[in-house]
Amino acid sequence: MRPARREKECETAPAEISRINRCCIASRFVLTLTLLLGQEQNRNEAGEWHQFRGQNSSGIGTGSPPKHFDPQTNVLWSTDVAPGHSSPCIHGDRLFLTTFNSEQSTVSVECFNRHHGERLWIRSFTVEALEKGHPSFNPASSSPCCDAQNVIAYFGCYGLICLTHDGQVQWEKRMPIAKSFGGNATSPVIHEDKVILYRGNYVDHYIACFDKGTGDERWKIPQSEKFTGEMACTACPIIHDNKVIFHSARSVQAFDIDSGQRIWIAQCATTATSTPIIVGDEVLVSTWNKLGEPDLRPPLPTFSQLISDHDANKNGTISRDEFPALWIFHRPEGIEAPMNGAPVSFKHGDKNKNGEVQEDEWSLAVKEIEQFRDGYETHGLLGIPLDSAGLVAADEVRILTTRGIPEVPSPVASETTIYLVKNGGQLTCIDQKTGQITKRMRTKGSGTHYASPLITDDHLYSFAGDGRVSVIALNDEMPVVAVNELGDNVYATPAILDGVIYLRSHKKLFAFKDKTRK
After folding, report:
1. Do 191 and 112 belong together in one domain?
2. Entry pTM
3. CA-to-CA distance for 140 and 272, rounded, in angstroms?
4. 260 and 125 share one domain
5. Residues 437-461: pLDDT tens digits?
6. Which of 191, 216, 422, 450 could join 406 in a cystine, given CB atoms 3.0 to 4.6 angstroms apart?
7. Cα separation of 327 and 297, whole Å?
């Protein structure tokens, strides 16, 4: 029996071997395909920072960038750049940025090799007039966006421009020059075959969708909210489940990205400055207005205090020369920024125009100012359910905090915590689930903050307008592990990709990489 069994085994061995070989070949094929797909996926994920603040404007970087850096430390490369406040976008080995030239009345898109900083090309466009705005604004404040084929740039004084990665113009969508007090610094986004732009200014106010291939308008929704000098409308749209969500003038809205049909609207007190983020089943948005919290409303002195502190000639009234600097609205932690508040004018107190402010006049002036302040609603960090419909009721909106709200920087979130950084380097940490404030602290940044914070490698990077970058470890103690001095103003939010920080100051574009890492 044993020999017969061996003979049978010998007879079937070739077929069995063949089957095994086929299985092995198939397995190797599947494994190879899996590895190739994984490599392709990794290639797709690597080298992609396609819009303002990266993936869906989340502010989450990739890799382990340096904690310590400055113009002499951990510099991969640096190069001079023309003026602009836009953030870089990146695909593959190419980095795109916008600039402007006031002498030549041009706006430009520039392309750099992101690995060594070589400027690959510049495409410039002549404008009839450069857009004006707040002194902190300039005509190249809108960040470009890109994908594997194209880069899209928006200028309020020109319109939308679509270029190939080699700098060839695919199409243009000319628009009238935007007019607003702040300047039209909104940034477009690409989603599949669509380009989304929210444009708010005195000339026109709408959200629109354009065909990425041709620039043809697919839909355009005019906004009924009146545009005022207080409106910023600089937030970047974000995408979730075929919905485009945008922080608009006095509201947050969601539209069907294919049809332009509005799905929901949540009304709120906001100038629409910062970009929302998606956290769990909510969209979180930092709503700000100039009188939205007590810190922005400096107390006004009584008349007796005015006399005690400022009546130099002791005549019982306050003359123009004696009238102190007082504020209706004031940014207390951004004092070095231009147009930092709304002062109380001497004329407002001198009702009878006799050159002196008397007690009854001052009492009336204070009453008028307080009535004006009462017309502004409290602002805050809001959580709006993503599955909302129609007009979102106030009790359906979660108010996480009403203090420490940034005017410009957008929020950023880790797995458990939401972070807000405002002027003065004030950092507020909020538990995502409970909405409770877990920590308030100071970064080492001071003064005005325009750039938004970013998170990568369990660290938060915060960028002060004066060029000081604070790096904070995201652990229980949250120590400031590094303070980096750039020696130049930084208004643009950097990109952090594959362990490299691509940071734009007013004069240079830097790439910082940890030289101890390969």
Report:
1. yes
2. 0.88
3. 19
4. yes
5. 999 999 999 999 999 999 999 999 9
6. 422
7. 8
